[in-house]
TrEMBL record:
This is GAF domain-containing protein. InterPro entries: GAF-like_dom_sf. It comes from the Bacteria. Gene3D superfamilies: 3.30.450.40.
Length: 240
């Protein structure tokens, strides 16, 4: 059971003005999703299609897919029963959350690497194909909310992409139909970034407080899965 104080701290630190009871209910629901035994997946949870990248790899070429799928087993140190179970759980969580919020795109990323070699790696998603890795550099964070949240550990809520860009906000465009976005950090117990979640909608203002509560709950329960995914620092489990 995740204590209410942990939920309260996360909401306060991320400046999310959400109803605590809504978040508590969502957390309990998602923990139940994790606890349920799941069948062996019928699809490949390790490999997925990705768009071709533009010059320098700075932006994706929309609707042009690379011939070679991205292989998570390379990023996660191979395939294992435990890693497969974790990826199955991540996909089940996305199904549960998106049934409540109706996002047009929803994904979970894990931070891998350190320093300038650190990246966010997409572990599971719902929606159209998108890039697999986001560099965690100041340069990339200037126009990528995913990288910005991965570097800072602070949430980004974009109610209207067009207004956001008009006001000078940087924006990485994977799909030109996206009109609103919310990106939340997944934090370890020591507040260091373990990963992020990203949700997008083709409708401006889609992510109401009620929908944000489910996304906040997802960010809060994810450490118990992401913290045990290899590769681990020094070969040991990290504190969640």
């Amino acid at each position: 059971m995740i204590p209410a104080s942990h939920l309260t701290d996360y909401l306060r630190e991320q400046a999310l003005n959400l109803d605590l009871t809504d978040v508590q209910i969502a957390v309990m629901t998602l923990q139940a999703v994790i606890a349920v035994d799941k069948p062996i997946p019928q699809r490949d949870v390790y490999r997925y299609k990705v768009p071709k990248l533009g010059e320098g790899g700075s932006c994706s070429l929309f609707d042009e897919l690379d011939e070679t799928p991205y292989d998570l087993s390379a990023a996660l140190g191979g395939e294992s029963v435990e890693t497969t179970a974790a990826l199955v759980n991540l996909n089940a969580l996305l199904d549960s959350v998106n049934a409540k919020i109706g996002a047009d795109w929803l994904g979970i990323y894990r931070k891998l690497g350190v320093g300038k070699s650190a990246v966010l790696v997409k572990l599971a998603y719902k929606g159209v194909e998108s890039r697999a890795e986001f560099p965690l550099t100041e340069e990339f964070a200037e126009f990528s909310n995913n990288s910005r949240v991965g570097l800072t550990g602070w949430a980004v809520v974009v109610e209207d992409v067009e207004k956001w860009r008009a006001d000078g906000g940087g924006y990485y465009e994977c799909d030109p139909k996206v009109k609103s976005e919310i990106c939340l950090p997944v934090l370890r117990r020591d507040d260091n970034v373990l990963g992020i979640i990203d949700a997008e909608s083709f409708t401006a203002g889609h992510f109401t407080p009620e929908r944000q509560a489910w996304l906040a709950a997802l960010a809060i329960v994810l450490p118990q899965i992401l913290v045990n995914l290899p590769p681990l620092e020094n070969g040991e489990s990290l504190p969640n």
